[in-house]
Amino acid sequence: MQSASPFTSKIYERIVVLDFGGQYNQLIARCVREAGVLAEILPYDAPLAAIQAGPHRLKGIILTGGPDSVYVEDALNCDPEIFNAGVPVLGICYGMQLMAQLLGGKVGPAEVSEFGHTDIAFAGHRLFAGLSEEETGEQGAGRHVWMNHRDAVLQLPPGFTAIAKTENCPNAAFADENRKLYGLQFHPEVRHSPGGRRILQNFCYEICGCQGDWQMADLSQTLVADIRRQAGGSAVLCGLSGGVDSSVAAALVHKAIGDQLTCVFVDHGLLRKNEAAEVMAFYKDTLGMNIIKVDASERFLGKLRGITEPEAKRKIIGEEFIRVFEEEARKLGGADYLVQGTIYPDVIESGHGKSAVIKSHHNVGGLPLDISFKGLIEPLRSLFKDEVRRLGETLGIPKALVWRQPFPGPGLAIRIMGEITPERLFIVRESDWIFREEVAKAGLAEAVWQYFTVFTGVQTVGVMGDGRTYDFVVALRAVTSSDAMTVEFAELPYALLRKVSQRIINEVAGCNRVVYDITSKPPGTIEWE
Ligand code: XMP
Asked: Which of 45, 122, 174, 464 minimizes the number of CB atoms within 10 Å of its CB?
């Protein structure tokens, strides 16, 4: 089964990012894209021929960070030929250490590990050109680069010189100008390195000689061309959840192949209040798509009966989704491709390549292996949510849909701790409706990334009227974020929280206590399961 590489139409300058499994690697690609250069992520061991393949002009290669040490047995290795490919290479953290080791330097445990904000002194170098005073500090001391390493380059490879240092790391960045090879021990891609974006931009423009011939608006054209090429004249099915990602994916595919696309909206019985009706009205009336609604609630809820383990729930839902799609495809006389709105955080958190599995997002890790479609069309696989939203806007999708809060494919199942029962679904659905109403009334709907309620499964003693109650606790979860990879809990006004709490306890039978979740991500995740 193969999925569409998103970038294969017009000829652009291209930077390849080799992924060694760090959690934030996609941010590197994103910074490159934001700098106006097409970025494509490939697995760490992609052979040089694969890196050079395709219509786009390779201008540079970036090696990302990763969780391992370069000197352990089975350490991840890149094709050493990339250093002779005639394009600049930038190694970041693990990538820098790997470059050092492969080219004759020495890497080992640092005397002092560095984590978090670290002062750094930059040499005058093109990579660091144009950093503002705040970013570099008065004497070139950057107070804000973000370090995250136990190992370090202890001895430079022949031909390299150090171009930045910290108190404990004399080789915090290095360069071999003759071969155009560079390394950064710190992470320029994270927001905690305020000069980092500029450094990546300098790599693209000053070092690789890019002109910046790519922009977000080009994305829809390249994706549409790509989808046409992949789908040919085939019939295509799209699973619509009503969420932003599947809507944008569907709109793209609709633009590419029109009526060859049929959308299937599965009501798995785990939707929010009124959601099914709203979604149907929207796609049919506003977007004019072929759309079929399948009421599969009994089937899903039956399979989920007695299941309490979060990963088991996700796998069941993922599998059932595919089975329903397959059945619909058969009814339609067969479909070769299935469109999914998978976005990059889904891929990375489902344990892509060498990253740790955090949870199986239903449209990635939950896929059964015997899926009977010829292939998947996943045009958003390399993008973050806010990039998807911007793409949605360029496609003319109404703001109300593009800026809807994200809703997970497994729906309320992962907001009900333990077994899913009609009573629990009622509590989470009604309390969620109240929370949404009040957030909207407070004018905060767009300021908060996601806000919902969770059925905690915990019962507590309360007093209502003159009597004792022993009912369930509902948790409120509201977070701010720009990409769902890291989040802060939202500092909602107390007056709003009070109102929501009062309404939930008064209006939702079976619930006598409301708590507010004040956990960020990491260490928490947005959803409770
Ligand atoms: P977590 O809980 O991992 O959520 O911090 C990150 C974002 O992903 C959504 N989410 C999912 N979306 N299928 C989806 O389509 C899933 O299985 C899934 N699990 C979490 C979550 O709502 C948040 O926006």
From this structure: 464
